[in-house]
Amino acid sequence: MSSRAANLCLLCRGARGLCGKKSCPVFSLWRTIESVRVPKVSELEEPSPPSVFVGRVGYPRVRVAPAVAAAGGDAELYERPEEWLGMPLDEVLRMRLGLVRGVLQADIRKPGALEEVALLAMSSKPVEVEVRFARPPRPSVRLDLFAPPFGPAGEAERVRLLGNPAVPRPLERAYGDGGLRAEEAVVRLYESGVPVSQIQRAFSVGALGCFRQRKLVPTRWSITAVDDIISRHLLKRVRGLEHLDKYLFFERKYADNTFVAILAPGPWSYEWIEAWFPHTTWNP
């Protein structure tokens, strides 16, 4: 936070609205964090949205963290970013911090050792999961620029599915096809209507690709890989479209962000510009 913004916060103290926002984002954040209740138990039986996070620290020995929704509510929404648009940020944060993670250690070269976790990740509906912790989960909150918010976590001794995963037929076929390359599988799943977030999870847990080449992929990398594969696939279509004969301008505002797209006549080219408002964290 810049010194100017910090001084404004000190003057306002969340009561005078000096920043122009409807509610104080700092107070809102901490109210949401304070509302998180950490289960003081060593075993949980709760629905998973489904949610599986694969870390990258220590690669190729990484942490794999399936999570359950201990805070109640519609668990399916917890891992459906496609449906978060228009949802208040407080609600998104409440859902994400309500996920309790059971952390397992895994070798990225042996995804088969986590078959139940893979089936969980591929499900399109919440699955009842039993997580047995070595000790009660820690009351931690993690906010990161490159990953969704995370709530409490604890070392898991065992993760067991109590319900049956609802795996979409196209994803089930890709999972069982040991001769299908991962890139081709991603495109097929996308064209079949499988949500991108679900494809990313399947990619991350090593459920796609030729059998001998399957590996766990850290979540951060799997998001990038799947987005890149789908983008290159769509670009083939875009290049074949007729040229525009006029400029088109689009704008959308959401959650204090402004998105602007300008389409111009001419051969295909692409430029992405990201700018931070003055007197904010990254532009003091």
Description:
This protein is of the alpha+beta class and 284 residues long. The chain has one domain (36-238). The chain is 30% helix and 23% strand. Helix 2 (25-34) runs parallel beside helix 3 (89-97) and helix 7 crosses helix 8. The radius of gyration is 21 Å and the shape is flat. 30% of the residues are buried.
Quick recap:
By secondary structure, the chain is α+β, with helices and mostly antiparallel strands.
Tell me how many strands there are.
10
Task: Describe the largest sheet.
Answer: 6 strands, mixed
Radius of gyration, taken over Cα atoms and rounded to an integer in Å:
21 Å
The termini sit apart by 7 Å
Q: β content, as a range?
A: 15-25%
Q: What structural class is derived from the secondary structure elements?
A: alpha+beta
Could you tell me the mean pLDDT?
87
Tally of DSSP helical segments: 8
Low-confidence stretches: none
Order of the strands making up the biggest sheet: 1-5-8-4-3-2
CA-based shape: flat
SSE string, helices as H and strands as E: HHEEEHEHEEEEHHHHEE
Q: Assign a percent range to the helix content.
A: 25-40%
